[in-house]
């Protein structure tokens, strides 16, 4: 089978290296909690994440996901679990810290600004 051409929303190798440990640890923990019962995982986590990013970038409904990606039900299932289990928040925090370090700042902000307005 021929290798598919990447979409602009696909993760680069460098970006995948940043988030792969978090997703792999999540998958291993889910398998451990499930007593390693059931079918082995058949979809690559990078393909699933690329599909989630494709939906995010294009705004298409899940059902319209191109056929090169895993089935939309699988991709949505992973997305829902990642959201429920806090994986997406964890990735957001990790990437925020890396961006702050790259900008020469401390990894975590020392202050917070809250802007509120009464109507």
Fold and architecture overview:
Helix content is 54%, strand content 0%. By secondary structure, the chain is mostly helical. It has one domain (13-37, 44-102). The chain starts with 12 loop residues before the first helix and ends in a 17-residue tail after the last helix. The mean pLDDT is 88.
Task: Fill in the keyword field for this structure.
4 helices, mainly alpha, 119 residues, 54% helix
Write the layout of secondary structure elements.
Blueprint: H1 13-33, H2 45-58, H3 72-84, H4 87-102
Helix pairs in contact: 1-4, 2-3
Question: Quick summary of this structure?
Answer:
The chain is an all-alpha fold.
Broad structural category: mainly alpha
User: Largest sheet at a glance?
Assistant: none
- The total number of structural domains is 1
- Element-by-element helix/strand order: HHHH
H/I helix tally: 4
Q: What does the average pLDDT come to?
A: 88
Rg for CA atoms: 17 Å
Q: How many extended strands?
A: 0
Strand content: under 5%
């Amino acid at each position: 089978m021929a290798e598919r051409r990447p979409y602009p929303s696909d993760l680069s190798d460098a970006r995948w290296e940043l988030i792969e440990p978090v997703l792999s640890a999540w998958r291993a923990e889910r398998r451990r909690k499930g007593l390693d019962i059931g079918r082995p995982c058949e979809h690559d986590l990078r393909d699933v994440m690329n599909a989630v990013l494709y939906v995010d970038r294009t705004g298409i409904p899940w059902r319209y996901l191109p056929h090169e990606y895993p089935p939309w039900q699988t991709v949505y299932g992973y997305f829902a679990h990642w959201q429920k289990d806090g994986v997406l928040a964890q990735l957001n925090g990790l990437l925020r810290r890396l961006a702050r370090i790259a900008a020469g700042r401390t990894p975590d902000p020392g202050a917070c600004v809250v802007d509120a307005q009464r109507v």
